[in-house]
Amino acid sequence: xxxxxxxxxxxxxxxxxxxxxxxxxxxxxxxxxxxxxxxxxxxxxxxxxxxxxxxxxxxxxxxxxxxxxxxxxxxxxxxxxxxxxxxxxxxxxxxxxxxxxxxxxxxxxxxxxxxxxxxxxxxxxxxxxxxxxxxxxxxxxxxxxxxxxxxxxxxxxxxxxxxxxxxxxxxxxxxxxxxxxxxxxxxxxxxxxxxxxxxxxxxxxxxxxxxxxxxxxxxx
Length: 220
Prior knowledge:
mainly beta; 4-stranded antiparallel sheet; 2 domains; 6-stranded mixed sheet; single chain
């Protein structure tokens, strides 16, 4: 297995310390025996002899160059210039017919430090097969959030014709659980802002059969 998941070329959002990491429920949803890796495609060194560096397990700063491959999550110190990279799943699956989330997206967060957050764009999955390694996407039920962004409240609408109980969990940008709602029986429900501050949040909607939808909510 060596599947390109996402390619990004351009400037990272800021200089200084940063990292590329997962938000819940990743990386547990990737296939067993396969690593999620970043491959460096290009570096523009700018004013620095080494464009970027990553910290190894001992905290030593090691220069990063074109062609290097790093297992995600990884931490970096970025200098002047641009860096291009792509993300791949690499390794040998050890569990047959295992499914994993494979429709991915990303976002940048900035502040004292920068971060590139890898997240699931939907609950679309791929499955390991003995013939090809990975099959086509298995699409999830549609789920809509409106309005989004919102100020006071928003409505989540999804397919629940059987009126099965669902659970909603809300995470902040660092993957910390900040809210939940149990026993959702209808096909739509309201999410109140409550004490949540302005920012980007992520939700998971699940039932007794497992994860049903993942999405992003923005509060102004």
